[in-house]
Amino acid sequence: MAPRTIPIIDFSQDPNVVAEQVLAACSTIGFFYMVNHGLPQDQVDRAFALSKEYFDLTAEEKRKHLIQEHNHGYSELYSETLDPEHQRQGDHKEGFNFRNFVNGKPFCPLPDLFAQNEDFLQSFSRYPRGGEASYQDTVRAGAHSDYGSITLLFQKDVPGLEVQANREEWIAAPLIDGSILVNVGDQMQEWSGGLFKSTLHRVTFLPEHNHVDRYSMPFFVHPEDATPLVPIPSSLVPPSSIQKDENGQVLTAGGHLLRRLQATYTYEK
Predict the structure, then answer these.
(1) What DSSP state is assigned to residue 37?
(2) Fewest C-beta in 10 Å: which of 23, 29, 149, 195?
(3) Bridge partner residues of 66 (DSSP)
(4) 139-144 sheet: strands from edge to edge
(5) According to the model, what pLDDT value does residue 111 have?
(6) DSSP states along 194-256
(7) Domains, the chain, ranges and CATH?
(8) Cα–Cα dist 158/174, whole Å
(9) DSSP E strand boundaries for 150-198
(10) Cα separation of 49 and 53, whole Å?
(11) Distance CA 99, CA 107 (A)
(12) Rg for the chain (alpha carbons), in Å?
């Protein structure tokens, strides 16, 4: 049974203690806060400042780098639908995704602002304030699991993230100063035979923050595209079925990512 709060794990503890706590968190709720992780706060603050500066650009300027099927670029308001089965419109958020850098260089051309700060790039999201009459829903980002292996999430100023503890209950993921919120993704769940939980989560409007923008920076960890999604050999990993692609082959990390992206984004041609 999943806990009703997200555990906080102090990474300055003995490594064996940390490992036990990470195992417990990943096999129950699939989320934990990492504190005393060693990343300087001034670097995090600089990245958030860069994020705000970008999203404050004009719509015309941001649209010069619209996201395409390679999953790099700017996603407009409502162009991303994280819960297509239940949402009546796209998510009330905008973002900028970065592909992996090769030899220190970006996968695709970057906006000038980011090109001048290549050492600080990962993925930026802004959930604009929700006061406009045309948007009556309480959800900024629909319920979803993450596509990769793990996600490292940096949050600032405005809460709103919720985690599904069970089918009937959503619990808040509050802001904890200096922490990184870590969660298990779909690929890690596959490798662990379901031992680790890729838990549904969403972002909601809180009435007291309805007129404030919310910023976040997720770092999505993905393996090489050809990596097969099969359980690893371990006494801890239970037997489980292996996912196949449309050709009957073992599903790969890249194949899984492509499936999820095609269901999530509306691309402009």
Answers:
(1) -
(2) 23
(3) 74
(4) 139-144, 201-204, 161-166, 169-172
(5) 72
(6) TSS----EEEE--GGGTTS-EEEEEEEE---TT-B----S-TTSPP----B-TTSSBPBHHHH
(7) 8-128+139-264 (2.60.120.330)
(8) 9
(9) 150-156, 161-166, 169-172, 180-184
(10) 6
(11) 6
(12) 19
Q: In the numeric block, which tokens belong to residue 242?
A: 């292996």
Q: Confidence class of residue 181 from pLDDT cuts 50, 70 and 90? A: very high
Distance CA 184, CA 121 (A): 22
Of residues 167 and 226, the one with the higher pLDDT is: 226
Furthest-apart CA pair in the chain: how many Å? Answer: 54
The pLDDT of residue 139 is above 80: no
Identify residue 44 by its one-letter amino acid code.
V
Measure the CA–CA gap between 251 and 229, rounded to whole angstroms: 6
Task: Pick the closest to residue 269 from 58, 67, 59, 61 (CA basis).
Answer: 67
Q: List, in sequence order, the alpha helices (H) in the chain.
A: 15-26, 41-55, 59-62, 112-115, 186-191, 253-264
Helix (H, G, I), strand (E, B) or coil at 119: helix
Alpha-carbon separation of residue 137 from 14, 109, 169 (angstroms)? 45, 35, 19
Let me know if 192 is exposed, middle or buried by CB neighbors in 10 A (0-12, 13-18, 19+).
Answer: buried
Strands 169-172 and 161-166: antiparallel
